[in-house]
Prior knowledge:
Chain A is mainly alpha-helical. Chain A is 49% helix and 11% strand. Chain A is built from 20 helices and eight strands. Helices cover 19% and strands 25% of the residues of chain B.
Amino acid sequence: MSKTELRRGGADTGERSQELPDRTTATTAELLRDSGCVLRLSEQEAAALSQSTAGSEDETMIINMGPQHPSTHGVLRLMLELQGETVLRTKPIIGYLHTGMEKTGETLTYMQGVTNTTRMDYASPFFNELVFSLATESLLGVQLPPRSTWIRMLMCELNRISSHLLFLATNGMDLGAVGMMIYGWREREETLRLFEKFTGLRMNHAYIRPGGVAVDLPETWREDVQAILDVLPGRLDEFDTLMTGQPIWRERLQGVGVISQEEAIALSATGPILRSTGVAWDLRKHMPYLAYDEVDFDIIVGTYGDAFDRYAIRLNEIRESMRIVEQIIEKMPEGDYKVQDRKVTPPPRARIDESMEALIHHFKLFTEGFRVPAGETYVAVESPRGELGCHLVSDGGAKPYRMRVRGPSFFNLQTLPHMMRDGIIADAVANISSVDPIMGEVDR
Amino acid sequence: MTDTPEVTEEAAAPAPEPERLHGALVTRDLDQVVLHVGPDEYRPVLEALKDDGYATCIDVTCVDQLTNDARRLPEGVEPARFEVVVNLLNMAERARVRVRCQAGGPDAVLPTITDLWPGADAAEREVYDMFGIRFDGHPDLTRILMPEDWEGHPLRKDYAVGMIPVQFKAAPGPR
């Protein structure tokens, strides 16, 4: 068996040239990228890197991490070139969860579209629904009633809390703080229970739809949300005690996976990774959508761009989201929860028994869907992982001509080789975890 | 019928010069700035935009316009089947710009922009994987989502939805 075959474990998984190439066959540009130094080295140093004997096949080892690895958050496969314990090169290999959702999106009507997009980033489904709905609405040119906008904000901020709690849980688990896993999941469960009560489903809600939301909030919503807001601050303080101030935790994360501002920007990183380097960039603040310009909150930024900053940013973003939710409880306007345009949103079920017109609208909407004026648009929202965008092209029909979703994790993964460079293999898990990739969104 | 003379007067006035940025035609549908370029202007326009402060390449994607009868392009832009779309972001000025490049037919080749924005690396690979557009100068232009031996480019409009008889080589064929 040749060396390359050995590397694949004997089985041909169909990636071949997508895999990490041998140093002898890799081009300089490839070497630079996989070593995570696209921006760090001068051309001279780069040339030296490609000729360095330190990296010859006999002294280094290429190992596979994943796709079946508990710390790769799904089916991410990393090929690492190691010299002893030091990581020299990293290449993420993706596509194991690719199900052609963008192609599927072209065969679904705009009404069905959210059930597809919501399954992309399964840890923050509301954001996917939101971005698709906003894109559709921008082509339709409909004006939303204020209540539906505020309901959307409420659900999104609660979802940001649950998504970051999931991050805290898995981040703890990856680094050996197994107790944290249980606590993170316990708190997340509270929000999921709330989602189930409000939308009927714990995940993949299809709640935010073009034209508004699926159903109005239940009458007791204020108390339900308040119950979570009452429980969380104490629990977050517990997390601080358990992790933030704890020497082992700090040792494990501080100075690990450092990435500079220039690198983060050049590599299209967004969200907590970008903010950890000190760039105060949050679409909610800088390019407000929904009604984010009417609520008060702060952008959390880091200083060092390391794994600890990314952890701390997410922990504190939960607190900021709670601030927003508190304001939403106060300011929630009364009114319609969806557009009363029967060409876009279905009539209430009870109307169908009384009105022929309602029956026709209902039938038309659910069989053919509604037509969207031809054109194209790009809409972006700030998901828990960064800029989530939707590029929608319509040819005037009832189905999107092309639906492109810009998943933040897909781009954020490109920072991994930079974070891993010259680190030790034991920190690899900390790095993957701090990027917080959701493979459903990476592969779509 | 009193306004008829006015209408003709307006029509007689010379059409306003179309807006251009770095030589590319600009449209502003839905308040979004879109630049229209051909394959030759693609790289120079993007270089100029990078110098303007568009430091983040948010997305590179593609649209196969094969069956789109309703697409709107400004006068003077030669339509092509594949349209490569680049989304850029300027954080300092909070501005976005979208570059629509009429790339060409199924064998279209565009110069890479990975040297301007290293973050475009994975996105260009995805465009190659899904549409078969090649990027000249890309460090590692391989498929990214589909297996290496996959035939065809799935997001093309002439790629049927369900033409996958056997997904894995080891799996038994349909009976």
